[in-house]
Amino acid sequence: MLAAAMNPCPCGFFGDSTRECHCSPPQIQRYVSKISGPLIDRIDIHIEVPAVKYKELRGASATEDSATVRERVLKARSLQTQRFTGERTIFSNAQMPPKLIRKHCAISEDGEKMLENAISRLGLSARAHDRILKVARTIADLDASSNIETRHLAEAIQYRTLDRTYWA
Question: Looking at the whole model, is its pTM more than 0.90?
């Protein structure tokens, strides 16, 4: 598993609503191009995480507690274990080869249209297509849904932030 972070530009303030970015577009492009598109393409989930405002840090918010999240994850992992019974080297959705993606990641006609639109509009690769389907399958598992619904697919597409921001 890889977890990584990067600033959106050399100064770190591009897109920040409270601080001004002083980087020029060529500087920003040069900065992000240090990480190649093909490398980014191999990362399943990439999202922008904006700075958190002080009131949000200190305020009481209705969040899901860790025990509840843990239970959902354990149930999703159990579903995946059952799904891949008989597969010697596959233990999670992330490990599915194309043959199993076609088998376990069926989407509705509306989902097909949404995914086709995202692929063409964002210029996504075949690798991104497969990763979106695997992430959507995992989101559906976390939702205890046997089918990948359009909302699961939409959420998975949203996790391709860098494709939309820098490489589209």
Answer: no
